[in-house]
Amino acid sequence: MTARKLVPAALLFDLDGTLADSFEGIQYALDAALREEGLPEFDLAWVRGHVGRGAAALVRDAVGAQPGEAIVRAVGARFSDHYRSTYLERTPALPHAADVLALVSKRTGGKVAVVSNKYEDLSREWLRHVGLAQHVAVVVGPDTYGVRKPDPGALLPVLRGFGVEPAEALVIGDMEVDVAAALAVGAPMVGVQSDPAAAQSLLDAGATAVLPALRALLGWLEDNGRGWRYDAPVPGEGER
């Protein structure tokens, strides 16, 4: 009897807000950079709403149009310095990230990737720091292939390397840019988002489903994937 084909056969995860609780660390570095240039700082809600398109876009949004390009460059340099020196200590993994990555890596034969708009070296260093690197086969940033999400060129080389068609993969993320990236290559996307308004925005953008927490992905795969039923308990099951 032939074993049933596993679908999704590969999983491509976003990093910030999906595996990593990144926003306070980003806010800390951004506000330090703005303060040193005499510019207004921003609260955590503003940062959450503007992260996802890369550091350059975040800095440009924070500085605004009036101060000019010299200030944008100065804030960008300061932000980069502050962030690189503090992000590891200020960026914990989200609950159950290790459990989820370990299980999906085992089930897919290691076809797990992180595709982020954070630079590849920062993502790799963070994954090593929190003990997740062994569960991730491929790490992609905007510098890896010269494009950033939602450009399909950020995802397609990963899928080709895994030998998996887009329709048989799954993209997991927390922002509309992740939905757009998945749609651009023809892959389904599952959002991880606890905020009801943000969750609805993901659904409106075309997400297949939106889950309130990362640990819920394992149950979703059992119910919605093909060949994903397993006997091991879902991490965190029974927790309130």
Give your account of this protein's structure.
With 240 residues, the protein is of the alpha/beta class. Helix content is 46%, strand content 10%. It is built from eleven helices and six strands. It has a six-stranded parallel beta sheet, sandwiched between helices. The N and C termini lie far apart (41 Å). The model has no long low-confidence stretch (mean pLDDT 91).
Can you give me a brief rundown of this structure?
With 240 residues, this protein is α/β, with parallel strands linked by helices.
Keywords summarizing the entry:
single chain, about 240 residues, alpha/beta, Rossmann fold, DNA polymerase, domain 1, 2 domains, 6-stranded parallel sheet, 11 helices, about 10% strand
Instruction: Quickly count the domains.
Output: 2
Radius of gyration: 18 Å
Mean pLDDT: 91
CATH superfamily of the largest domain: HAD superfamily/HAD-like
Model regions low in confidence, pLDDT < 50 over at least 5 residues: none
- Label the structural class: alpha/beta
What distance lies between the first and last C-alpha atoms, to the nearest angstrom?
A: 41 Å
For this structure, what is the CATH class of the largest domain?
Alpha Beta
Query: Strand order, biggest sheet?
Result: 3-2-1-4-5-6
Major β-sheet annotation: 6 strands, parallel
Please tally the β strands and state the result: 6
> Could you name the CATH topology of the largest domain?
Rossmann fold
Strand content: 5-15%
**How many helical elements?**
11
Helical percentage: 40-55%
Q: What is the global morphology? A: elongated
CATH-defined architecture of the largest domain: 3-Layer(aba) Sandwich
> From N to C, what is the helix and strand string?
EHHHHHEHEHHEHEHEH
